[in-house]
């Protein structure tokens, strides 16, 4: 399978997960499917790409920005890095959704956090933490 095909397939898989997470009812089976099915498939794809291609990149590594740049000049390793983002962002988005449901946050409040996590990863997590801290401060003030 070509790197382009893996890129397209994993991107579509992650997109399906995000649409389910944002728009569908959050049944336990759906959350389990996203976690074990979609995120699991993305993680397996990542593992295969890393084990097959990572150590083949001469001069690549994590010791300097030049080594990281060299890694990402290789298409299969670049796709592995992309899949890494897809899997982790969807995992964090799922955690945010479950935690936000547990705290009783409205789905309209959750949507911007989830979209920000989908598009910009840590930015969505930061929005969730700010929202949670605000809620906790308001709750403490009322008590």
Describe this structure in words.
Keywords: Membrane, Transmembrane, Transmembrane helix. Pfam families: ABA4-like (PF14108). This is ABA4-like family protein. The chain crosses the membrane at residues 6-24, 36-57, 77-98, 110-130. InterPro entries: ABA4-like. The structure is a single chain. The chain is an all-alpha fold and 143 residues long. It contains six helices and no strands. Helix 2 runs antiparallel to helix 4 (75-103) and helix 4 (75-103) runs antiparallel to helix 5. The chain is elongated, with a radius of gyration of 18 Å. The termini are far apart.
Inertia-based shape: elongated
> How much is the average pLDDT?
95
Number of helices: 6
**Largest β sheet strand count, sense and barrel closure:** none
Helix-strand sequence: HHHHHH
User: How many DSSP E strands?
Assistant: 0
Q: Helix/strand-derived class?
A: mainly alpha
Question: Gyration radius, to the nearest Å?
Answer: 18 Å
Proportion of strand residues? under 5%
Instruction: State the low-pLDDT regions, or none.
Output: none
Transmembrane segments: 6-24, 36-57, 77-98, 110-130
Pfam families: ABA4-like
Protein name: ABA4-like family protein
Keywords: Membrane, Transmembrane, Transmembrane helix
């Amino acid at each position: 399978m070509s790197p382009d095909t893996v890129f397209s397939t994993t991107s579509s898989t992650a997109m399906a997960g995000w649409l389910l997470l944002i728009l569908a009812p959050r049944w336990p089976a759906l959350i389990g499917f996203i976690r074990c099915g979609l995120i699991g498939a993305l993680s397996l794809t990542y593992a295969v790409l890393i084990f097959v291609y990572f150590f083949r990149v001469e001069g690549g590594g994590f010791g300097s920005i030049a080594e990281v740049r060299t890694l990402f000049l290789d298409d299969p390793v670049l796709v592995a890095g992309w899949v890494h983002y897809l899997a982790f962002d969807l995992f964090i988005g799922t955690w945010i959704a479950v935690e936000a449901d547990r705290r009783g946050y409205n789905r309209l409040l959750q949507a911007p956090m989830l979209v920000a996590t989908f598009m910009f990863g840590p930015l969505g997590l930061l929005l969730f933490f700010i929202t949670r801290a605000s809620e906790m401060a308001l709750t403490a003030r009322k008590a």
